[in-house]
Amino acid sequence: MNIGSMTTLGLLIVLAGFSSYLLLLLVIHRFTYRTWIFDVIIGLGTAAALIGWIFGGNAVVTLITFILGVAWFPVIRRELKLTGSKRLNLRVGDRLPPLNLLTTDGRQVTEQDLIASAPTLLVLYRGWWCPSTKSLLGEIVHDYESLSQAGLTIFAASVDEPADAAPIQQHVGDKITILCNVPESLLDEVGVRDQRGAPWYDRILFGAKHQDIAMPSAMVINASGKIVFIYRSTRVDDRARPADIIASL
Prior knowledge:
Layout: H1 6-27, H2 36-54, H3 59-80, E1 100-103, E2 108-110, H4 111-116, E3 120-124, H5 131-142, H6 144-149, E4 153-157, H7 162-172, E5 177-180, H8 184-190, E6 193-194, H9 200-206, E7 213-214, E8 217-221, E9 227-232, H10 242-247
Parallel strand pairs: 3-4, 4-5
Antiparallel strand pairs: 1-2, 1-5, 3-8, 6-7, 8-9
Helix pairs in contact: 1-2, 1-3, 2-3
């Protein structure tokens, strides 16, 4: 392969980066927090096309590759950005606010139940339709042994109705108790309200409701009902680290 033909190779690399990311999200319905991998792929493809053009490669192919490569970064960052609360309203040392939620089988759970299970990890997630939610909860299941050995009882809550969240409960088994019907008032009280809600393509492809949702977040509550750890994501590809959660105990 001569250097000039790298323009075509670069375009193919960029297209492979785009298509694999979209396939992962929209077809396989999975998500990876390592989104930097796709940044590297797109960057390498764009660089290859530019190098090929310098050595006589096709200018049109180079232009197309460059436009796609440059467009990738602002578009993806917009899609990964969470638009909502500007800051957390709860801090370490604050008490867990009152809540009245439901399990997927209709059992009522209040803040007193969470305190009685302390130390308790309460994760707020986006919704049943979200690939990053499955990855987030899947990673918690993967780290369940270390979290459980630290004494944590794990709950995960969203604005979903119990019937919609039932598949999520099956997905995580008995390691996490899924809670439903989180009200917008609680999202505001915590400071995790995402006003953008489900992206338009998730509403079309998966039937997600057009409503405000939770920004992915996590808090640890002790036996006195006080928060000893709290974390809120500002991007979809961000989450609290298990090591930090355990260190708060």
